[in-house]
Amino acid sequence: MDNKGSGNFLRIAVIVVIVTIIAAGVVFFMRHGTPATLSLTPKGNMASFNTDFSLTLSAKNSPLKTLKVTASQDGKRIEFLERSFTGNIMEHTEVFRIPRESGFKEGPMELTVVATVDSWMSLIGRGKSSVVLPFTLDLTPPRINVTSGVHNVNQGGSGAVSFTVSKPVERVGVAVGEHFFNAYQQKSGDYFCFFAMPFDMAPADFKPKVIARDNAGNEATQSLFIFAIPKNFKFDKLNVSESFLNDKMSQYTAQFPAEKSPLEVYKRVNNELRQKNVDELKRVAQDTASAPLWSGAFLRLPNAAGRAGFGDARDYYFDGEKIDHQTHMGVDLASLANAPVPAANTGRVVLAEFFGIYGNCVIIDHGLGVQSLYSHLDAMDVAKGADVQKGQIIGKTGTTGLAGGDHLHFGMIIGGIQVSPVEWWDEHWIQDNVLKHLSKQ
After folding, report:
1. Which CATH number describes the domain made up of 37-137?
2. Which of 155, 169, 261, 335 has an alpha carbon within 20 to 30 A of 205's alpha carbon?
3. CATH hierarchy code of domain 235-425
4. Residues 6 or more apart from 84 whose CB is under 8 A from it?
5. What is the pLDDT of residues 376-425, one digit of tens each?
6. What is the pTM of this model?
7. Could you tell me which CATH class the domain 145-229 is placed in?
8. β-bridge mates for residue 174, sequence order
């Protein structure tokens, strides 16, 4: 190759290298100018000063630099949120509300979010991202009108109320202390709600109130003036025998492998597992029909003698030493061994399994948050999802779980809270406290 050819080759090589470097640089700087992605919720068309907006920023190549949120309406603009980021921040979540002092009125408005990343490319218009969310500012809370309801509720018992709400709502029901009981809209347009007075709530603390929150987050409340009837619950001392521990704790040792003795397993079962089961009842309660599935009074196990009652307080002793204290949250009914157990009323099976302290257990949903519980069964003749009729045999009594002898532990549940079953066996109580109000729907 002559000198001229060599020179041309070198010049081409140099040009290729320069072009490659420039291209790599362009790709590098363009990538490092990639704007952040924005996600702003809720995306509904209604909001209020109570609406929690959630903004998520996610950077790809360059860290976040700034964030600005502006609200505007009829030419009025207010920048009410501004952030500057330092360091290598690639992700950020911000929860905010439109400030009440902003002076915005009901009507159409919009939020504008602008975010930048820390890149020189933002100087030429890259590295910036924005999102605009139009919505209607709604500042009018719903109006609640109570149409009917019970006048008295027993401690540990159930109550019911129906009411109307003036506008669509996203959450509606009755609050009793820390508990919330969902209401369900009926064909009439009215809402109907069963609620409970927990057995351990003092009558002076029983102050139920209807709560309705609309789609914009405006909330209204209406107190219910209901007389709370106090109840005296029994107290028992129960001796836990060594034979009971040896016989029963083998059901639970796999759940508490660290415990070496049946007594220590029992302590954890009677406390931790019991509480876990109680919490699970609240989850199961969400699987309920929005209309009543049952009719009339609930059935009691035929030809059965009552043993332990609802709300009985129990101190547990082993070798003369107190080892625990719990409350019995159902009614124990004893008949013949392996007696057939009828469904107390019409409904749908929402649980049929070995269920902690309850052993083999069936829970039937009757609609509107009302459910019945059948435990310690020897056999279960229904499966989850099955529709059952009042009086249909669903299993046989037994000794599974923490049962000391063959019997049925029967419970009633309102919105996940266990209540006295005795009321639900009473035709007069059903008529006065349930059917009288449901018939108006």
Report:
1. 2.60.40.730
2. 169
3. 2.70.70.10
4. 65, 66
5. 999 999 999 999 999 999 999 999 999 999 999 999 999 999 999 999 99
6. 0.86
7. mainly beta
8. 181, 210
